[in-house]
From TrEMBL:
<dbReference type="InterPro" id="IPR037171">
    <property type="entry name" value="NagB/RpiA_transferase-like"/>
</dbReference>
<dbReference type="InterPro" id="IPR036388">
    <property type="entry name" value="WH-like_DNA-bd_sf"/>
</dbReference>
<dbReference type="Pfam" id="PF08220">
    <property type="entry name" value="HTH_DeoR"/>
</dbReference>
<comment type="function">
    <text>Repressor of the lactose catabolism operon. Galactose-6-phosphate is the inducer.</text>
</comment>
<dbReference type="Pfam" id="PF00455">
    <property type="entry name" value="DeoRC"/>
</dbReference>
<feature type="domain" description="HTH deoR-type">
    <location>
        <begin position="3"/>
        <end position="58"/>
    </location>
</feature>
<dbReference type="InterPro" id="IPR014036">
    <property type="entry name" value="DeoR-like_C"/>
</dbReference>
<keyword id="KW-0678">Repressor</keyword>
<keyword id="KW-0804">Transcription</keyword>
<dbReference type="InterPro" id="IPR050313">
    <property type="entry name" value="Carb_Metab_HTH_regulators"/>
</dbReference>
<dbReference type="InterPro" id="IPR036390">
    <property type="entry name" value="WH_DNA-bd_sf"/>
</dbReference>
<protein>
    <recommendedName>
        <fullName>Lactose phosphotransferase system repressor</fullName>
    </recommendedName>
</protein>
<keyword id="KW-0805">Transcription regulation</keyword>
<dbReference type="InterPro" id="IPR001034">
    <property type="entry name" value="DeoR_HTH"/>
</dbReference>
Length: 253
């Protein structure tokens, strides 16, 4: 097993059970404890785990949230495949909502240039590239901009969304499970994501498979409110079936 594969399994276990222990990981992967410690150091630098005595816990459990650059560097191939699959949900014309996030940003990069679309977004980082496309009308939602995610949040954002109605909302999530629904670490972003779901005729959630089974602080939606969940082929078949039973169509890209 390559180091990257082992590290991915470590993150998945940490998110599913709440923590990982160095001794258990060494025995399970048949490697030395020093190798495991190096893996945990790499994952901590990526902003997905926090080292604790004897092991590590996912940052979401501590209320921490990885920064935009750290999240953007993780699961890049999977996020690109998810974005390409989500293109099928973009209408030929009309209005869409584009949530802030590294996977939804991949969708922003590949939106067709020949469609007459209005794109409403709270993602400050995607506006420069979208605004240069003449066929797109870009509406940036105002509000306080969170430095960690470059997302506009709070009252100004919510007021604008209250008067907005679009064909499709493309929403990101930090956590998704059949038991808890859609969750994120920040209550301000949770409120905005909740308002986006209410403002759309259809909701499409984009997230890689490591978010499945991960529950964060603030819930912003139920799976019954989601029309389609687009993720990658790393998702376990059993987990995919659980999500489908709760409501959304599940697409593996």
């Amino acid at each position: 097993m390559y180091a990257e594969e082992r590290q991915q399994h470590i993150v998945e276990r940490a998110r599913s059970v709440g923590r990982v222990d160095v001794s258990w990981l060494a025995a399970n992967f048949n490697v030395t404890m020093e190798t495991v410690r190096r893996d945990l150091t790499v994952l901590e630098r990526q902003g997905v785990l926090r080292r604790v005595h004897g092991g590590a816990i996912p940052v979401e459990r501590l209320g921490f949230e990885p920064g935009l650059a750290d999240r953007d560097a993780v699961m890049t191939a999977e996020k690109e495949r998810i974005a390409k699959a989500a293109l099928a949900e973009v209408p030929d014309e009309g209005a869409i909502l584009l949530d802030a996030g590294t996977t939804t940003a991949r969708l922003a990069e590949i939106l067709p240039a020949d469609r007459e679309l209005t794109v409403v977004t709270n993602a400050v980082s995607v506006v420069p590239q979208l605004a240069l496309r003449p066929q797109l009308t870009v509406l940036l939602l105002g509000g306080r901009v969170r430095g960690r995610t470059l997302a506009a949040v709070e009252d100004w954002t919510l007021r604008a969304l209250a008067d907005t109605f679009v064909d499709v909302a493309f929403v990101g999530t930090n956590g998704i499970s059949a038991e808890r629904g859609l969750t994120t670490p920040d209550i301000g972003e949770a409120a905005v994501k909740r308002a986006m779901i209410r403002a759309a005729r259809r909701t499409v959630v984009l997230a890689d498979h490591t978010k499945v089974g991960n529950d964060c602080l603030a819930r912003f939606g139920e799976l019954s409110e989601v029309d389609k969940f687009v993720t990658d082929t790393g998702l376990d078949d059993g987990l995919a079936d659980e999500l489908r039973a709760a409501g959304p169509e599940v697409v593996l890209a």
